[in-house]
Amino acid sequence: MSATPLVRLDDVSKEYELGAVTVHAVRGVSFDVAAGELVIVLGPSGSGKTTILNLLGGIDSPTSGRILVDGRDIAHYDEEQLTQYRRRTTGFVFQFFNLIPTLTALENVSLVAELVPDCLDPAEMLGAVGLADRADHFPSELSGGEQQRVAIARALVKNPAILLADEPTGNLDHETAIRVLQVIRDVNANQGKAVVMVTHNNAVAAMAHKVLRMRSGELVEVRRQETPADPLSLVW
Ligand code: ADP
Ligand code: MG
Questions:
Q1: Who lines ligand 1 at CB under 6 A?
Q2: How far apart are CA 169 and CA 184, in angstroms?
């Protein structure tokens, strides 16, 4: 297949100025994400994984390099263009769920839906993550895994082309993590969405089509996997 990739990072670097010190969070990173691909970014703490995800999500802009999404370079978007990009193209899932505690599961998902034209049905999205019967529960009445699945429904209700997830199972026990990984795999396999997921858990990488390994801000390995593992088979 020679189709243009959905996403292409081309020699991307991100530096942070901390007083007199320059932190090279990401250095000269290049990779592609194809439509429908499940990509996992591996690496130890501080290796630049979150920075990569924030750049892909339009939360941060690179110091140099190009980030082509559907052929357009988001590296040079202004604030208004980035806002539109974040609303329409990407859905973000965080390690600590970030749900609004005073809103029910359904209201958390609906709130995002109101921002976006052509959004999907919030109740249907809760159903898709297996939480139809928890719609009226508040976050404090849900387990960690259920809260993370609400967060995934919230990310997906915008019908984004790309789901971005930063250590989405980092705060969950093994069994709960597997359930959340199954939902993410289904989003990729059944809804055809590209997924870029960050983890420091090597075992999780087995479920990816492609594994990117980061070290000290550099991309040191790109590995393709012909037969991604079923999340149910993952052990750690
Ligand atoms: P990871 O997600 O792999 O743990 P990060 O992408 O969060 O790594 O961070 C990579 C490096 O960049 C780290 O050294 C971190 O301290 C630094 N860094 C990240 N964000 C900032 C920031 N906003 N200001 C200064 N340094 C930062
Ligand atoms: Mg991180």
A1: 16, 18, 23, 25, 43, 45-51
A2: 11
The residue whose CA has the least distance to atom 10 of ligand 1 is: 48
Indicate the top mutation candidate among 12, 13, 16 to test ligand 1's pocket, ranked by most ligand atoms within 8 A of CB: 16
Residue nearest to atom 14 of ligand 1 (CA): 46
Q: Best substitution site from 18, 50, 55, 60 to test ligand 1's pocket, by max atoms within 8 Å of Cβ?
A: 50
Residue nearest to atom 17 of ligand 1 (CA): 25
Question: How far is residue 125's CA from residue 107's CA, in Å, rounded to a whole number?
Answer: 12
Residue 8's DSSP bridge partners are 32, 68
pLDDT in tens, the chain (236 residues): 457 899 999 999 999 999 999 999 999 999 999 999 999 999 999 999 999 999 999 999 999 999 999 999 999 999 999 999 999 999 999 999 999 999 999 999 999 999 888 899 999 999 999 999 999 999 999 999 999 999 999 999 999 999 999 999 998 999 999 999 999 999 999 999 999 999 999 999 999 999 999 999 999 999 999 999 999 999 99
Q: Which bound ligand lies closest to the C-alpha atom of 27?
A: 1
